[in-house]
Specification:
- Helix content is 5%, strand content 27%.
- With 309 residues, the chain is mainly β.
- It has a 28-stranded parallel beta sheet, with no helix packed on it.
- The longest helix has 15 residues.
């Protein structure tokens, strides 16, 4: 009779609806209940309603088991606000292949997923495929992390059309040491580089070394910018063999106020000047002042001194 009587009050009760400290049976109310649909503080069994329930489809504040509905559920396919287990549907889910608004685990599909290989709109983790992915080796339209392949990638060594980060290989790269067709950043190696110290065929920035450089103090064969040192320089104050710009010092200078041996431009001071208002020994142009060589000036001064003596 003891094993079948309901509403028992002993230390250990076996049967439904018991009230003792430890109850084995459904719909029990004691501190610890083993059986379905129990209401005590700690319940082991499905469909329980106590503060802590161990079993599937439980409804208490903390449930350990699949398909639970409480505020905090530990088990797969749970529906509460916070679920720990795969395939959960609550607002915050910790486990793979979850579908809630915020999921922590791989292969999740919610709006915000933290874990690899996720598919939601915003994914934090490697190998993700959503529109915005934070993590390496991602494939979505916008990826934040290294070695990404999407249209816009923020991180080093990216391969998409537009990459923001060093060492990128896409068509347009923003960052140093990039290798794509168009690179914005220093020390780049692509065909067109915007940044200092670049080595590509066409470089826009100072101290560049490519064949055509646009920027000051460049060293390539053709430089557009001041104070350049290449064979052909376009800009003021250049020192190469052929300079196009004012105040140049090379052997042949095209521009005003130049100081080289041969200057083409007004107001030049070299030995041979082609242009108006020049002051060298040989000037080709209007309003020039042909200065005689220094030895001729010395002889004239000496003869004048002797005549007065």
């Amino acid at each position: 009779m003891f094993l079948t009587t309901v509403q028992q009050f002993g230390p250990i009760n076996i049967g439904p609806g018991s009230l003792g400290p430890i109850n084995i049976g459904p719909v029990s109310l004691g501190p610890i209940n083993i059986g379905p649909v129990s209401l005590g503080p700690i319940n082991i069994g499905p469909g329980s309603l106590g503060p802590i329930n161990i079993g599937p489809v439980s409804l208490g504040p903390i449930n350990i088991g699949p398909g639970s509905l409480g505020p905090i559920n530990i088990g797969p396919v749970s529906l509460g606000p916070i679920n720990i287990g795969p395939g959960s549907l609550g607002p915050i889910n910790i486990g793979p292949v979850s579908l809630g608004p915020i999921n922590i685990g791989p292969g999740s599909l919610g709006p915000i997923n933290i874990g690899p290989v996720s598919l939601g709109p915003i994914n934090i983790g490697p190998g993700s495929l959503g529109p915005i992915n934070i993590g390496p080796v991602s494939l979505g339209p916008i990826n934040i992390g290294p070695v990404s392949l999407g249209p816009i990638n923020i991180g080093p060594v990216s391969l998409g059309p537009i990459n923001i980060g060093p060492g990128s290989l896409g068509p347009i790269n923003i960052g140093p040491v990039s290798l794509g067709p168009i690179n914005i950043g220093p020390v780049s190696l692509g065909p067109i580089n915007i940044g200092p110290g670049s080595l590509g065929p066409i470089n826009i920035g100072p101290v560049s070394l490519g064949p055509i450089n646009i920027g000051p103090v460049s060293l390539g064969p053709i430089n557009i910018g001041p104070v350049s040192l290449g064979p052909i320089n376009i800009g003021p104050g250049s020192l190469g063999p052929i300079n196009i710009g004012p105040v140049s010092l090379g052997p042949i200078n095209f521009g005003p106020v130049s100081l080289g041996p041969i200057n083409i431009g007004p107001g030049s001071l070299g030995p041979i000047n082609i242009g108006p208002v020049s002051l060298g020994p040989i000037n080709i142009g209007p309003v020039s002042l042909d200065l005689p060589p220094i030895n001729t000036i010395f002889k004239l001064c000496h003869a004048t001194f002797l005549s007065f003596g």
